[in-house]
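User: I'm preparing a small set of examples for a lab meeting where we compare how different chains pack in three dimensions. I only have the primary sequence for this one, and I'd like the structure in token form so I can line it up with the others. Please keep the answer compact; I'll paste it straight into my notes.
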Amino acid sequence: MWLRLSIGILAGAALGFLYHHFVGCRTGVCPIVRNPYASMVFGAVIGTLFASGLR
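Assistant: Understood. Below is the structure token output for the 55-residue chain.
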């Protein structure tokens, strides 16, 4: 179970960073994706939720 959650956290953080890098926020007022760290944390949370829901 811990391995699955760890993979979910790492994959989510990586996808959050990639989203920030390639899509990002052009105006600079987007609260989640204007900062790469916030985007990675948001991705890690989503990855954790996704990994915890898998059976």
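A couple of notes for your slides: The chain is about 70% helix and 0% strand. Residues 2-53 form one domain.

User: Perfect, thanks.
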